[in-house]
């Protein structure tokens, strides 16, 4: 789910990077396929992908997909996706705090206030590995 839908101010108004990690079992036929696409579905806003500890790339616009075949091994693999959002939600959250408790500031006027709609953030998915045969 979106970070902005989590009922904790530290998550709802978070601005920065979060890491999603998962161990996945990769069948032999994926490793011998022509290509294996990692499809991340909806990402807000930027994703940096690691497979088995190796950087596979950075995606900053749809479609959030990349070929990860060369990083995969048969059996257990580790997938790690670092997602970075914008600072809009942090600014909105800070506008509801007394000035001395705010984490952020800007030197110009923003069209935001403490009642502004939060932006979706995070890895919204669905996340899938898709093998394409020769």
Query: N-to-C SSE series?
Result: HEHEEEEEEHEE
Work out the radius of gyration: 18 Å
Biggest β-sheet: strands ordered side by side in the sheet: 1-7-4-5
Largest β sheet strand count, sense and barrel closure: 4 strands, antiparallel
Query: How confident is the prediction overall: mean pLDDT?
Result: 95
Instruction: Give the overall form.
Output: elongated
Unreliable runs:
none
Q: Which class do the helix and strand fractions yield?
A: mainly beta
Our count of helices gives 3
Strand-residue proportion: 35-45%
Beta strands, count: 9
Distance between the termini: 35 Å
**How much helicity do the residues have?**
10-25%
In brief:
This protein is mainly β and 134 residues long. The chain has helices spanning 9-12, 28-31, 88-94, and strands at 17-26, 35-39, 42-44, 46-51, 54-59, 65-67, 75-84, 122-125, 128-132.
Q: What is the topology?
A:
Elements (H helix, E strand, L loop, with lengths): L8 H4 L4 E10 L1 H4 L3 E5 L2 E3 L1 E6 L2 E6 L5 E3 L7 E10 L3 H7 L27 E4 L2 E5 L2
Antiparallel strand pairs: 1-7, 2-6, 2-9, 3-8, 4-5, 4-7
Protein model, in words:
The chain is mainly β. Helices cover 11% and strands 39% of the residues. The protein is built from three helices and nine strands; from the N terminus they run αβαββββββαββ. Strands 1-7-4-5 form a four-stranded antiparallel β-sheet. A three-stranded antiparallel β-sheet has the order 6-2-9. The model has no long low-confidence stretch (mean pLDDT 95).
């Amino acid at each position: 789910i979106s970070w902005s839908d989590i009922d904790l101010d530290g998550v709802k108004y978070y601005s920065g990077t979060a890491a999603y990690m998962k161990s996945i079992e990769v069948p032999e036929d994926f490793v011998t396929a022509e290509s294996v696409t990692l499809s991340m579905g909806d990402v807000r806003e930027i994703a940096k992908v690691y497979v088995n500890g190796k950087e596979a790339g950075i995606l900053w616009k749809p479609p959030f997909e990349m070929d990860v075949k060369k990083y995969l091994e048969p059996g257990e693999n580790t997938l790690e996706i670092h997602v970075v959002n914008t600072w809009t939600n942090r600014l909105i959250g800070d506008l509801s705090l007394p000035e001395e408790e705010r984490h952020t500031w800007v030197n110009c006027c923003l069209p935001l206030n403490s009642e502004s709609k939060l932006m979706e953030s995070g890895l919204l998915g669905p996340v899938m590995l898709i093998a394409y045969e020769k």
